[in-house]
Amino acid sequence: MSDLKLITTVTIEQYIRRALMSKARMKKYYVKGQKKPPDRLYKNIDKYAWQQFPNRKEYLVERATRERVVANPRTAGSEKWKLINGNKMYSGEIARWDKEKIMTEIRKSYIPFLEEVEPITLFPLRILAELHDTYIDELNPTDPDWDIDNRFYPYGKAFPDVLIGWPKWIKAEKVYLTRRLIPDDHRGYITQPPAPKFIPIESSEDRKIVFKIFQDLSLVVQEHWAYKEKCMVCKGRGKWIEPVVGEVTCPACKGTGKRDNRIKLK
Fold first, then answer.
1. Nearest Cα to 61, choosing from 36, 31, 25, 33?
2. Pairing relation of β-strands 4-13 and 208-216?
3. Residue 177: CB partners within 8 Å, gap ≥ 6?
4. Residue 106: enclosing H or E segment and its boundaries?
5. Count of CB atoms within 10 A of residue 245's CB?
6. Of 51, 114, 209, 246, which has fewest CB within 10 angstroms of its CB?
7. pLDDT value for 246
8. Which residues contact 249 (CB under 8 A, 6 or more apart)?
9. Is the whole-model pTM more than 0.90?
10. Does residue 240 sit in helix, strand or coil?
11. For the segment 204-225, what is each residue's pLDDT rounded down to a tens digit?
């Protein structure tokens, strides 16, 4: 007998490889003591000069207009995209706010593919995944030896977040930004988070991630007290004692909903 029962499959077609960080990049200026301007600006003292502004910083300005010289004229006002790199996110090379922006974009990209998925009622779950992509990274050819776990890390982390409704705390109130398909993603509901298998393909246009959600029927899990029938009062934190007809007793909460940690559960 298999210890896995397939519940549903979710396919993320052309999963995003880049995240939109900003719709319009901010203008940058030359500040004295920081990045040195090009010689054509720095040495042209007839046209340019340093001027102190209210923030006590000295900026390079045009003498005629007293406007600050833009240091990034080609990119200012344009969209800013960042290649999703799980290794840099994991190691902390990417700033916390940039990391959260990337995770937000990944979660948003999943939502359309989950619209037809029905709420799941069979637990606990094991989630397997297939990463379909080219052997040579077409978007980052300078990294020929990319790792599957590093590539998959942010995508695997984002998937359970969307399954539980993408919760956010807004003004001390917990709200859900999308439909809840499972109650939570802790070990009581998911015994194996998304684990990837690499499937090589020829064109990046055909890339996709396939998430396969199974019920975990392994005996070591199903026979454990934590995964047997639960007390609905204390939300499953206790184990049923052999119930008598018409009577239910939980050794952890005894029907009160408050667990007595002094009681050792089997």
1. 31
2. antiparallel
3. 165, 166, 167, 168
4. helix 96-110
5. 4
6. 246
7. 39
8. 240, 241, 243, 255
9. no
10. coil
11. 999 999 999 999 999 888 888 7
